[in-house]
Structures are given as C-alpha cells and as structure tokens.
Specification:
- This protein is an alpha/beta fold.
- It is about 35% helix and about 25% strand.
- The protein contains 16 helices and 16 strands.
- An eight-stranded mixed β-sheet has the order 1-16-15-14-5-2-3-4. Strands 6-7-8-9 form a four-stranded parallel β-sheet. It has a four-stranded parallel β-sheet with strand order 10-11-12-13.
- The longest helix has 17 residues.
C-alpha cells in the first residue's frame, strides 16, 4: 500500500468517477454510474443515461473504477494507542484480570512505543478502507497519529477516576488542556469526550463532563459485562473490592442525569436491561458493537435484533489490538455475519458506514455516496457483482465482503487519493 496526503489547498477541477458498480449505501448498488466531485464533495450522481452524459460533458479528470466504488468504512470505536500491545494480553483468566493485565502492560510500554503503535494502527485501518475513526485517546499519545494521517479521526479524550475525587480533578484538568488544543467541531481531528464507563467514573466527574460537553460528541463504554451491571445496581460481584460503594443506579440513568446520554455512542452494550433499548432510541444514542472483541472474550450472542426492534442506531468498531487480531472493518463485518447468520448482511455493512457516521455525529457529511456528502470512498473488486442480477446487487455486495478475498484497490478522503494498491 502507498499512502498519500493532500498537499495543496488550491482549487481542484471537477473529477468524474466512471464506475462499473456504485454502492451508494449498503442498500443501493447500481451498475454503470458516474460520480462528479468538486472540492472534495460529491456534486452529482448519475445513473444510466445521466451517467453517460456526465462522462461526455466532463471537462476535468476522469477516474475509471473497474470494481465497486463504495463509502469508506467508519470505525466507530478504536483504541489506537493500544496497538503496541497486540497479542500481549490474553483473556484466559476472564475480563477483570484481563483489565489489570492490560493496565500493567500499558504502564510498562514507553510513550514512543505507544505512539508508534497508534500510527501503525491508523495506517492499517486506512489501507483496508477505513476513512473515519472514533478513537479513545487515553494518554494523549494518539495526537501524533491523528496529525500524520489523512483520515478523519475524532479523538475522544478518556476520563476515569474510579470513584476518587482527587483523581477525577486530575483527569478533568488533563481533559481541559486537551480540549483547548483541538477544535470543537467535527473536523478531521476533532475532540470528543469519553467518560470511560458509568462504573469507573464518579457521579461528580460525570456531572463535570456534562457541563463541559456543549456540542462535542460523547462516547462511553456501557454494559459490557454482567459484572459491571451487577455492581452498579447492587454493589455485588468482583468490582466490589475495586470500586467501593455503588451508586445503585443503572449506567443509563447516570449518563442521562449528567447530560451525557443524548446522542452519545455507547460501546459494547452486551447486557441491556428490559426497556433500555427503547430509552437509548429515545435519546437518539447509538450502540457500537465490536465483533472482534466479542469473539476474543467468547461472549454470549450480541442482542442485535433487540436494539433493531427498538429503533436504535447500530454501528461497528474494531476496539483495540489488545482484544482483536487485526484492525480491519471488513473483518468486523465478516465476524458479525458469521455470529448472526439470521440477520440481513446489509445491516452490518450499513452499521460499518452510515450507522457509524450517525454514531459519531457525522451523518450529514459522510457514510453514503450522495450529493452534498464528502467524497470519502474506497474501490474494491467484487467478483459476485459480475454475474448476479441487478436486483440482487446490494445483497451480493454485502455477502461478498470478506477480508482476504476482497482487496481494497484505492481509498479517497475528501476526493484526495489516500491509498493506492499496486497492480498484481
């Protein structure tokens, strides 16, 4: 793979992409289409006769896409700074011991190693077609990776105090410094807030984060384990000796009272209580499923259909290399399909694109290929599209998505070429 960076701010002429197949979304796949891009934004999409007219009238460059042009993947939850720990934290002893081993391994790693791992992780995601990343930035070392990558990276600065007010003040001070150095909006390297989880952040610190939120995106680990849920509501389980007295309130109730639930992205969500999917949907929040991590811990089936029935937006994420073998959104789609064969496979592809954009607060600018949206796209060869009926094209596109059989040829971010795979 060869990475590229947009280096010029001068106006670019309109570029017309002539596509053998165009996947505008997980549900809309068309043969023989044209996409006109100006200034990094899609200006027009033509199908059939309109596509041929755009091609004939093109006055700028024409890019021929022999495979399928599709939206770039959106990785809604990553920990790029843990990439250096790949394969070093086994889960054999269970989740709570794994967390302790993870913290020790990260403490023993140098800042240079963590930073280099973050850069390598971002590059791996880019090479496999991920154009946007929602990343949990725990120590501030991911900033360099974000600056070096052409991807859109939202850095969710993590805050965790374990119920200790003094530790909470330190974490808030570090957060304030980080927020001061990064823009408020949803640009390429925007800052978001990430209270680690309702069971690891005190009520006072949650309220302080709610007061700082404004229009910033929020991401929080929620209901990942039954032990977490048990401690929050009853004070029982293995967290009892680690976290002190419980709030005796659900995680959703704590987030809502702090002003952090509306529009937030809730990561994992493996153990929703009855009625909680409806509360999440009413708050216009999203749930981010991480199939790789789910398999790593050999967890019970994810309640995908429960969330869908309640109208919750679902997204996908890779999580970190400490609990996943690779950073590749194609692998997450494939794992979700394998684990949930009864679900329409287009739902997983949608979660990895449009659903991810919605989870990160970017649904008006990325996630689909349509006029007014950013030209964040990838090109992949999809042999199944060559022989299937056109009415089945969207299903064939989602069913054929497999990590090793579907190489990414090119990746564009805001119309600028970011990756080009050498011809075999």
């Amino acid at each position: 793979m060869r990475p590229f960076h947009a280096s010029s701010s001068s106006p670019r002429p309109a570029v017309t992409y002539w596509c053998r197949w165009l996947a505008q979304s997980a549900y809309e796949v068309h043969a023989d289409a044209a996409v006109v891009v100006t200034g990094g934004q899609i200006q027009a999409v033509g199908l059939g006769g309109a596509a041929r007219r755009y091609l004939q009238e093109a006055t700028g460059p024409v890019v021929h896409v022999d495979g399928a042009l599709a939206p770039g993947f959106v990785n809604s939850h990553a920990h790029l700074d843990l990439s250096a720990l790949v394969g070093g934290v086994p889960a054999d002893a269970g989740f709570v011991p794994w967390v302790g081993a993870l913290l020790r391994a990260r403490a023993n790693a140098t800042e240079a190693a963590l930073s280099a791992g973050a850069r390598a992780g971002a590059l791996a995601l880019l090479a496999s077609g991920t154009t946007t990343v929602g990343d949990i930035d725990t120590l501030g070392v991911t900033e360099g990776a974000a600056q070096a990558s052409p991807q859109r990276i939202i850095l969710f600065r993590e805050v965790l105090d374990g119920g200790d007010p003094a530790r909470g003040q330190e974490a808030l001070a570090a957060l304030d410094a980080a927020l001061a150095s990064c823009p408020r909006g949803a640009g390429p390297r925007a800052r978001g807030l990430s209270p680690h989880a309702p069971h690891t952040v005190s009520r006072a610190t949650l309220r302080a984060l709610g007061a700082r939120r404004g229009t910033r995106p929020v991401q929080v680990h929620w209901s990942e384990t039954s032990e977490e849920v048990d401690w929050l509501t009853t004070g029982g389980g293995p967290f009892q000796s680690l976290l002190g007295p419980p709030p005796r309130r659900t995680g959703l109730a704590q987030l809502a009272s702090a002003g952090l639930l509306d529009g937030a992205s809730l990561v994992h969500g493996n153990h929703p209580a009855e009625g909680e999917p409806a509360l999440i949907a009413a708050a216009r929040a999203s749930v981010v499923h991480c199939p790789g991590t789910h398999a790593f811990f050999d967890r019970a089936p994810f309640p995908w259909s429960d969330y869908r029935r309640a109208g919750v937006n679902l997204a996908l994420g890779t999580d970190s290399l400490a609990s996943n073998g690779r950073l590749d959104m194609r692998a997450e789609v494939a794992r979700a399909r394998e684990a949930m064969p009864g679900v329409d496979p287009r739902e997983f592809l949608d979660a990895a694109t449009r659903g991810g954009a919605l989870a990160l607060g970017l649904s008006d600018s990325i996630g689909i290929l349509a006029p007014g949206f950013a030209a964040d796209a990838l090109e992949m060869d999809v042999p199944a599209l060559r022989t299937c009926p056109k009415r089945r094209a969207a299903l064939a596109w989602s069913e054929s998505l497999a990590v090793d059989e579907t190489p990414v040829r090119r990746v564009w971010i805001a119309g600028a070429l970011a990756v080009e795979r050498a011809s075999d």
